[in-house]
Structure formats: structure tokens, C-alpha cells
Design brief:
Elements lengths: L2 H14 L4 H25 L4 H26 L4 H8 L3 H13 L5 H8 L8
């Protein structure tokens, strides 16, 4: 049983003994905040860099979106230069994506991203 299920059980029990709605919400909010606070403290103690992780996740999302778009436009017969121009991206980077898509069409977008992320202008 995970934490959410346990919290739902507590919520249900409080309702059955007629605890007012606002008190239930206050109580469950305190539990959620305490749990998140403990979670955050653990990672902060370990020196976890939240901002770097967030930036990396955003860069990966942008890269995946770009790769999916390039794949779609290549299948429609668009040239690398047209794609780069339309998307406002560096032609060299679009060419790298295109080369992988054309030479290894079975390769997933995620695998392409992992191969090219260090070259991605977004990640720098």
C-alpha cells in the first residue's frame, strides 16, 4: 500500500467519524507537506542539484520534440535546409538528426536524443 492509498484511508476514516471537511483538508495537507519536506531534505542533504536536473529535463523534452518534428518532416520529403529554416535551428544539428533517422529508421527518438544531446544547442 503506497502513501496515497494510506492518505485516502485516513481521509475516509475522518469522514466516517464526522470530522469537518476543513479540518480533514488541513490535516491531510499537513501530512502531504511533511512528506514532501522530508523528501526534499533527503535530496538536499545528498547535494542534489534540482535546477540542473530541471534544466536537463527541459532540454531533453525540447530535443525529443525537435527530433519528432524532424522525423515527421523528413517523411514528408522536406530537405534538411528547409526544416532548419522553418524551425529556426542550426542546419548542422538538423543534418545530424536527419542522418540518423535516414540511416537507422528503426532507432527511437529517445535513442537519437541520447546520442545527440551533448551536441544540442538547447542543452548548452
Amino acid at each position: 500500500m503506497d502513501g496515497c492509498q494510506k492518505l485516502q484511508i485516513v481521509d475516509t476514516m475522518l469522514r466516517k467519524i464526522n470530522v469537518p471537511e476543513d479540518r480533514i483538508n488541513d490535516f491531510t495537507d499537513q501530512i502531504k507537506e511533511a512528506r514532501m519536506g522530508q523528501f526534499m531534505e533527503h535530496f538536499n542533504e545528498e547535494g542534489y542539484d534540482w535546477q540542473a536536473t530541471r534544466n536537463r529535463a527541459l532540454a531533453e523534452g525540447d530535443s525529443l520534440r525537435l527530433i519528432k518534428t524532424v522525423r515527421r518532416l523528413i517523411t514528408k520529403g522536406r530537405s534538411v535546409d528547409e526544416i532548419a529554416d522553418d524551425l529556426g535551428e542550426e542546419p548542422g544539428y538538423i543534418r545530424e538528426i536527419s542522418n540518423i533517422i535516414l540511416s537507422e529508421p528503426q532507432k527511437t527518438d529517445e535513442a537519437i536524443m541520447n546520442a545527440l544531446l551533448p551536441l544540442c544547442p538547447i542543452a548548452k
